[in-house]
Amino acid sequence: MAPLDTTRLAPVLHEYFTAYLVTQRAMSDATIRTYRDTWRLFLRFLAQARHVPAHQLAVTDVDAASVLAFLEHLETSRGNSAATRNLRLAAIKSMMAFHATKAPEQLDTAARIHAIPVKKKPKPQPTFLTSVEAQALLDAIGADTWTGRRDRAMFALAVQTGLRLSELTGLHIDSLHLGAGPHVACTGKGRKRRTTPLTTATAAVLTGYLHERKARPGDVLFPNPQGRALSPDAVQQRLSVYEARAVTSCPELAGKHVSVHTLRHTAAMRFLEAGIDAAVIALWLGHESTATTSMYLHADLNIKRAALERTRHPDTPAGDYHPDDPLLAWLQSL
């Protein structure tokens, strides 16, 4: 094997993606796609800044200053969140750490890039839909076209199971089992397999959809017109269209940004409202620990009110506290 050219960026990236991530690290397809997208964005940014084609960039074009400029570009020009910024930074750090093992002269540069801190961000409260809002969203999906029937089946499945977006788009026809004990099998984070039961209503929707789906190309469960998996952007775009339609019948949706992750939160909140233990919800959603699931405990004020009612003294009237009228309170104090 010819020695790796450590001066040009192209061969280093080629070995990083084809040999290191796949063979040595055995990274998941989702992680590789995320890292790939990061470097596509970063290469375009560098090529424009250096006024050279991307394939002619040198490894020395990647330094702490260029990385910081790229991160600033992500936030100001592309409007990316702190979470996305941190994800892109992690992908760059990973590649530069790999390169430093091949080119010790780049250790200082890699260390400077590694020292770039992640941006802290406040943890947002999870947005979720009530049962009425979720049904209004599904009802807004027309069933008079193939794409409408596909989308209704896809989002009905998402609301009931709480699958992640990558899990949803990664499903194949044989992921569904609609006989006795209907369920869906998916591969989640860390390539962990997870099986999720289906309700009778969801299974009925999917049974009708699957009968029509088998006449179309490919084996992806929710395909695009070419039979390939839908892109994350396509799924979100479709969901935004239906959210806009649903606002007319359910005005409460107007103040919410609905994403597939919102539907995932919705599934979790339904379980929590039904009194299901957080450990069971964590298992259902594929969380590593119940610590992640605990965020739902803070999301719904009604759950906190119910907990307060269970600890209420018998002589204390039920309901929320309301201060006395100031005049009556003053008279009481006399």
TrEMBL record:
Regions annotated as coiled coil: none
PROSITE patterns with a match to the protein in the record: CB, TYR_RECOMBINASE
Gene3D superfamilies: 1.10.150.130, Intergrase catalytic core
Cross-referenced InterPro entries: CB, DNA_brk_join_enz, Integrase-like_cat_sf, Integrase_catalytic, Integrase_recombinase_N, Integrase_SAM-like_N, Tyrosine_recombinase_XerCD
GO biological process: DNA integration; DNA recombination
Listed GO MF terms: DNA binding
Domain of life (superkingdom): Bacteria
Keywords: DNA integration, DNA recombination, DNA-binding
Ranges for domain Tyr recombinase: 124-309
Signal peptide coordinates: none
A Pfam family that the UniProt record links to this protein: Phage_int_SAM_1
Protein name: Site-specific recombinase XerD
Organism the protein comes from: Humibacillus xanthopallidus
